[in-house]
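Severity: low
Component: inverse-folding endpoint
Summary: output formatting inconsistent between runs
Steps to reproduce: submit the following structure tokens with default settings.
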């Protein structure tokens, strides 16, 4: 169903800095005028497939595809044949014959790459073990709303630096020209290959990437403070050891006192109060998590529209 070079959004650096800015501007436009663009009129369909649990991603893609004039086909992998071992390549070719885009929440990044290779239509990463790029678009839209711009801001991400959110903040922050500081314990710092990619991007955008084991150094003077669960989906067996190890990285009022007094707090949700973030922080005046959750809809409508215009 596609012509020419189909674009995908599998990791944050699939958008250049200029393209990320374009998508974020479109997201703001679609937030102001939610029904102004109908790239999926027909309706054309979008497959939205989940190997893992989801609340926000599931609802925001279903709502967003409908807003764009399309028909969301939302499925759990367990009820599909790919869940019984049908090859991803075959599944991709079938989706590409029936739908205008594929959105997939899965485990391995390699599976997404295979889906993109064979689908012939845009494929969007709705969270993998390595990246959550749609979340970062929503987060940066939120930061723009509260801080006016992205370039030059100091962003601190504390907790599990080696998970999907840690990697996406490093890459997506460098793309936006931000100064990203990750505070994470040894063994849970972002993949050095991803940090190297982010540093190459930061050299063009004026941003920077700093990795430290010290949560206070990460947060000192920050404009934006972010955390995520210490136990990502698929890591449930490691919960006890992770909770013991990450204790010093909890975003508490004491840690927030080190940030800029006007700092905002983000969390992609779901949040575990008393673990990675204190209740008085996530439920307090610096928290923008509900704007952030809503912005999933607007950001994803923007990336879908942008990709469909190019496929
Ligand atoms: N933040 C996020 O992706 O939430 P869900 O897991 O509920 O989709
Ligand atoms: N790091 C979390 C993000 C959830 C949206 C996970 O992968 O479970």
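Observed output (run 2 of 3):
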């Amino acid at each position: 169903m596609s012509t020419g070079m189909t674009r995908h959004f599998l990791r944050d650096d699939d958008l250049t800095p200029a393209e990320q800015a374009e998508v974020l501007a479109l997201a703001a436009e679609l937030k102001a005028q939610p029904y102004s663009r109908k790239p999926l009129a027909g309706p054309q369909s979008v497959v939205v497939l989940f190997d893992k649990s989801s609340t926000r991603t599931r609802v925001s893609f279903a709502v967003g595809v409908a807003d764009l004039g399309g028909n969301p086909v939302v499925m759990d992998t367990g009820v599909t044949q790919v869940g019984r071992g049908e090859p991803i390549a075959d599944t991709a070719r079938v989706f590409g014959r029936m739908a205008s885009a594929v959105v997939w929440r899965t485990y391995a990044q390699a599976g997404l790459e295979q889906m993109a290779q064979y689908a012939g239509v845009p494929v969007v990463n709705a969270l993998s073990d390595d990246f959550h790029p749609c979340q970062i678009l929503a987060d940066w839209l939120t930061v723009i709303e509260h801080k006016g711009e992205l370039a030059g801001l100091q962003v601190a991400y504390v907790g599990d630096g080696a998970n999907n959110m840690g990697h996406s903040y490093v890459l997506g922050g460098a793309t936006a020209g931000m100064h990203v500081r990750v505070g994470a314990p040894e063994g849970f710092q972002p993949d050095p290959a991803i940090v190297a990619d982010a540093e190459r991007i930061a050299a063009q955008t004026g941003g920077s990437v700093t990795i430290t084991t010290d949560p206070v150094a990460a947060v000192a003077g920050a404009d934006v403070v972010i955390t995520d669960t210490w136990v990502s989906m698929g890591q449930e067996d490691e919960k006890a050891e992770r909770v013991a190890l990450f204790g010093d990285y909890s975003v508490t009022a004491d840690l927030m006192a080190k940030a800029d007094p006007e700092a905002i707090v983000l969390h992609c949700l779901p949040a575990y109060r008393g673990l990675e973030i204190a209740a008085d922080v996530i439920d307090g005046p610096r928290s923008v998590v509900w704007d952030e959750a809503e912005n999933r809809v607007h950001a994803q409508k923007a990336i879908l529209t942008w990709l469909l215009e190019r496929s």
